[in-house]
Design brief:
Number of strands of chain A: 4
Order of helices and strands of chain A: EHEEHE
Number of helices of chain B: 22
Helix content of chain B: 25-40%
Structural class of chain B: alpha/beta
Strand content of chain B: 15-25%
Helix content of chain A: 10-25%
Number of helices of chain A: 2
Largest sheet of chain B: 6 strands, parallel
Strand order of the largest sheet of chain B: 2-1-3-4-6-5
Largest sheet of chain A: 4 strands, antiparallel
Number of strands of chain B: 18
Oligomer: heterodimer
Shape of chain A: globular
Shape of chain B: globular
Structural class of chain A: alpha+beta
Chain lengths: 85, 548
């Protein structure tokens, strides 16, 4: 299965590293990723295309728990997704 | 006031009175501030011991435990303790020194990227980058450690920030607004409970962590629903109830495992369907609808897709779904299983049978005794055969299964509960993993009672080698163990060795009556195994009960 996830959080030097670790550990593969900071780099926006045999809710719930994450949205499921980032 | 003194003041603001740690170069300013700062510090003899003492302190009290280490090897030595706290959801704040800011990233002496190392074994971690950040970060660290599902938080503080002028920070008022419970879900839960013919409570460590033991017991009193528990749930339910079947899972009781397989409604309370509990997941509770109550939304549907879930505070949910049931036949059946499959302590010969010794110890120990077990066969025997009346009194490395946990955890528990008896039950393999903490016991003059179950083997691994690896005992034979009584005496801890059943009563009396620390070295046969055992990959009702 392929998923498009959009994540937003308060930026910190290790936030992207933290996200990628959780994605890997929970059994998801990054196929494409874009990350950019806004607002004097106080916010980080990440758009990531993921693949996995596991339900995406297993990952999104884990990402929601990361301190500083303010938004997680999953835009596509099951089908190849049209990315918007 | 410099940053280090500020840290000590901030700890006092968080009502911290006791910390555990080990000094070193990059944390020296903080140790200077601790010298006369008004927060008690116990020197452990390894940073892993400090982390596990902090866990023992936290688990025995419900408060946040604190451990401190220097940069580099000091920080890496904390890692196993942090992972242990993460798996068991224990609130810990670990403070590490870091090399000065301008040296970070230069491979400086004793520099390691502890923030990077900590990502997989903490709930959150901070690197302090300025003196202004110290106050807010320390406050946030305590909030994160305790909020929702508790867990460990690490604060890495460069040495120059410890030495810089502090910036005063005033604590913010954080009165949490609890959201109202979802009434339709409450009604649905009550309806499911009332209509079930064979409901069963599956109680995990989340109940104790939420401080919801009274609410759980009230729920049981009203609903009369039978119950089982996980390793971390021990102590949440009154152990002498006819309808409490004990621990479920790989080494759970036969009655508990059968009840799980037979029930038609499973109410999981603060539990997470761990593989050691479920056995073959597809065949776990095959006839049951499931209600899952857990504060961590990420646990819902993670392993078992459930019919109804609520992630509110257990202290609020349990009273809200309290309801009476009519399940007399089921209760009668469960009570009969408890009697039919009760543990037996008749054991042939004169050699010591560890389960019987531990049962006797539980009967003799004072009320409100804290039991800290290590990891291995003895840990399972403690869970099966000893009993406590609240979860703070059973401290065991459950999720991570960390050998070497028992002695330092007992150090932390004894520091927290100075007037209560603390018993560490260890095995000869685990004991040697953190044996240096006998020095901490001596230093703190701690009256910890140590029961060392010695089969001269890594017993649990040996058992699996016997059962599943054709008796090929690869590196599990420990006949070269030291003389443990002599070893303890080097730390001024008296002790004795017993080898026969006839010695048990008097030896336990001497152990419990000792004024200071005491080592009871119990020699047992290497052939003793932990039963029952659900083999890996099998359903919970496919238990092995002996070698045949």
């Amino acid at each position: 299965m392929k998923y498009l996830m959009i994540i937003q959080g308060h930026n910190s030097p290790e936030l992207l590293e933290r996200l990628l670790r959780v994605i890997r550990h929970r059994g998801f593969f990054v196929q494409k990723i874009n990350a950019e900071c806004t607002g004097n780099c106080k916010l980080l926006h990440v758009t990531v295309t993921l693949s996995s045999d596991r339900p995406v809710s297993l990952l999104s719930k884990q990402i929601e728990k990361i301190f500083g994450i303010t938004q997680v949205a999953v835009l596509g499921q099951a089908q190849p997704v049209k990315e918007s980032a | 006031m410099n940053g280090a003194h500020f840290v000590v003041q901030a700890l006092k603001q968080q009502n911290v009175t006791q910390v555990f740690g080990y000094p070193g170069g990059a944390i020296m300013p903080l140790y200077d501030a601790l010298y006369d700062g008004g927060v008690a510090h116990l020197l452990c003899r390894h940073e892993q011991g400090a982390a596990m003492a902090a866990i023992g302190y936290a688990r025995a009290t419900g408060k946040t435990g604190i451990c401190i280490a220097t940069s580099g090897p000091g920080a890496t030595n904390l890692i196993t303790g942090l992972a242990d706290a993460l798996l068991d959801s224990i609130p810990i704040v670990a403070i590490t020194g870091q090399v000065a800011s301008h040296l970070i990233g230069t491979d400086a002496f004793q520099e390691v990227d502890v923030l990077g190392l900590s990502l997989a074994c903490t709930k959150h971690s901070f690197m302090v980058q300025s003196a202004e950040q110290l106050g807010p970060i320390i406050e946030q660290a305590f909030q994160i450690a305790q909020a929702g599902r508790p867990g460990p938080v690490l604060i890495d503080i460069p040495k120059d920030i410890q030495l810089a002028d502090a910036v005063i920070h005033h604590l913010t008022d954080t009165v949490g607004d609890s959201l109202p419970l979802n009434n339709p879900l409450l009604k649905q839960a009550k309806s499911m409970i009332r209509s079930a013919a064979k409901p069963l409570l599956y109680v995990g460590g989340g109940v104790g962590m939420a401080g919801a033991v009274d609410e759980l017991r009230s729920f049981i009193k009203t609903s009369k629903i039978p119950s089982v528990c996980t390793l971390k749930g021990i102590g949440c339910i009154a152990y002498n109830s006819d309808y409490f079947l004990g621990m479920v899972g790989m080494h759970g009781s036969k009655a508990a495992n059968i009840a799980i397989q037979e029930c038609d409604l499973l109410i999981a309370v603060g539990a997470r369907f761990d593989d050691r509990v479920t056995g073959k997941l597809d065949e776990f509770a095959p006839h049951a609808k499931v209600i899952h109550l857990d504060v961590d939304a990420a646990e819902i549907d993670k392993l078992r897709v459930v019919e109804l879930a609520m992630t509110d505070d257990l202290k609020l949910i349990l009273p809200a779904i309290e309801t009476a049931t009519s399940i007399l036949n089921w209760r009668t059946h469960v009570a009969k299983m408890k009697v039919d499959f009760a543990n037996r302590y008749d054991h042939p010969g004169g050699a010591i049978f560890a389960p019987a010794l531990l049962r006797k110890l539980a009967q003799m120990m004072p009320a409100d005794t804290v039991i800290c077990s290590d990891v291995g066969q003895h840990q399972m025997w403690v869970a099966q055969h000893m009993f406590v009346d609240r979860p703070e009194n059973h401290i065991s490395s459950s999720g991570l299964g960390t050998m070497g946990f028992g002695i330092p955890a007992a150090v932390g528990a004894q520091m927290a509960r100075v007037n209560d008896t603390v018993i560490a039950v260890s095995g000869d393999g685990s004991f040697m993993m953190n044996v240096q903490e006998l020095g901490t016991i001596k230093r703190g003059k701690l009256p910890i009672k140590i029961v060392l179950i010695d089969n001269q083997r890594l017993g649990m691994v040996r058992q699996w080698q016997q059962l599943f690896f054709a008796g090929r005992y690869s590196e599990t034979i420990l006949t070269d163990n030291p003389d443990f009584v002599t070893l303890a005496s080097a730390f001024d801890i008296p002790g004795e060795t017993i080898v026969a059943k006839s010695q048990i009563q008097d030896a336990l009396t001497r152990l419990l009556n000792s004024e200071g620390a005491y080592l009871l070295h119990v020699s047992i046969s290497e052939a003793e195994n932990v039963w029952p055992l659900v083999p890996p990959g099998a359903a919970n009702d496919k238990m092995m009960e002996n070698l045949e």
